[in-house]
Write a structure and sequence with these properties.
The complex is a heterodimer of chains A (about 240) and B (about 270). Chain A is α/β, with parallel strands linked by helices and about 240 residues long. Chain A has one domain (about 5-240): Rossmann fold (3-Layer(aba) Sandwich). Helix content of chain A is about 35%, strand content about 25%. In chain A, the strands form 2 sheets. Chain A has a 6-stranded mixed β-sheet, with helices on both faces. A 4-stranded antiparallel β-sheet of chain A has the order 2-1-4-5, covered by helices on one side. In chain A, β1 and β2 (about 20-30) form a beta hairpin. In chain A, α4 (about 100-110) packs across α5 (about 115-125), α4 (about 100-110) packs parallel to α6 and α5 crosses α6 (about 140-155). The radius of gyration of chain A is 18 Å and the shape is globular. The termini of chain A are far apart. In chain A, about 50% of the residues are buried. With about 270 residues, chain B is mainly α. Chain B has 2 domains: about 5-150 and about 235-269, no CATH class; about 150-220, no CATH class. Chain B has 13 helices and 2 strands, in the order αααααααββαααααα. A two-stranded antiparallel ribbon of chain B has the order 1-2. The radius of gyration of chain B is 24 Å and the shape is globular. The chains are: A alpha/beta (about 240), B mainly alpha (about 270). Chains A and B meet through α2, β6, α3, α4 and α5 of A and α9, α10 and α11 of B.
Chain lengths: ~240, ~270
Amino acid sequence: MSHHIVAFKDVFFGYPDGTEALRGISFRITHGESVGIVGANGAGKSTLLQHLNGYLLPTSGTVIVGDLSLSRKTRQEIRKKVGVVFQNPDDQLFMPTVFDDVAFGPLNLGLDEAAVRERVQGALNMVHSLELRDKPPHHLSSGQKSAVAIAAVMAMEPDILVMDEPAANLDPKSRRALINMLKTFKHSKIIASHDLDLILDVCQRCLVIKDGLLVMDGPVAEVLSNQALLEENNLELPLSLQRG
Amino acid sequence: MTFDQKYFDIGRLDRLSYQDTFMHRLDPRVKVIATIFFLLTVISFPKYEVGGLLPFFLFPVLIMTVGEIPVMFIMKKVMLVSPFALFIGVFNPFLDAGTVAVIGGIPVAAGWLSFLTIILKFVLTISAALLLIATTSFPGVCHALRLLGCPALLVSQLLFLYRYIFVLMEEAMRMIRAREIRSFGGRGAGIKGFVRLTGVLFLRTVERAERVYYAMLSRGFRGDLSILKRSRLEWKDMAFLAMTVVMLIVFRYYQVTEELGCLVQELIR
């Protein structure tokens, strides 16, 4: 039954100021796939991500998550399936302590106290941050903050993990730790980033967005080695492919 | 004091509250109740009762010692807000001119006593509040308030205030630095620049609020900021509360200083 698919069918979205951010995007992501979304600044990546858990609703077209079609009525259900990790952990970690923050999602799912504690423990263990439990977020380093932000989302046990620039603000070692961690997750993953090496490492498939349109959809190695396409989209070959 | 220093000063009070001493380990609820009780007792003294108030300094002194809170730090904070109390009481000696005592041939107006009482009450209440914050993490205080029946909305506001004041101050700090670097002490450093800077800071805050709200929604927020309770009342908490309350009542209804004085006089004789 619950196949964790995500499907966009001819999705349009315009902001109230008249900007057409998405202009007819269609794709389908199946269970367990890792998909990278790349594109120039302002191409529509963030707008697209905000449709994935119903923060924005398409002006026309349909978004399907699992077996639900996104609408005002279904978005609460969809939010339980899709976990979104934000670019800036300070926006994501809004509770006064790490524990409260990670517990926030599970509590809203209506779990009882013992189950919540278990979820928090499990999620913090997964990102190797259990010892940060009682700290307030403003005492954490950027790397710790983003680890905790991921734990906060994982604690809800989402079917689909969505990340916006997960490695921005991370030092190389924390970035590498994040990549290794992402590889161990069995979820469907959708990652928007300018860090093409990260996408090459973590994802199997890559979508390129330009001016609200999907211009390329294919296996990651193929897409990210297409120099002409990348340069058209203000991108560059991933460093790991430049050496060869 | 520059903005940077101010920022780290607030940060220091916050850091103090994460120490691990007997005072810090007490359940926040008993500390909140004890503080409220202390405040009410101190305020309840009539306006000429200078002697009765003095023993109450025992409490802040004890808490500072047990909680390892630097005295000077708290003193400075108290001084900072003291002008309010000074202005409230400064005219008392002239308005309330009846003589209560003659010391060395100079008559002392009753107003001086009430002025002194205001100052003492002010120092006691402010330091009690500061010490509560310095020995209890702010989230702890908020949880305690919630458990003691404070409205959920108010407690949520306080929690957000605490969470984002540091983020906001860091943002302001970055902007102030950027301005200073490019204004060379001339134009741009003045009030006009400040007004624009505040405006931009406000807009950024609005945008951030929107992103935070989005983050809350994506984790299932539906209007209630639920929090797991974290602490249980233990015997030591109850003992602390009971002892504080008993001592406060004794200090309120017995002239402890007077009785001590009498006792000492007896011994000398």
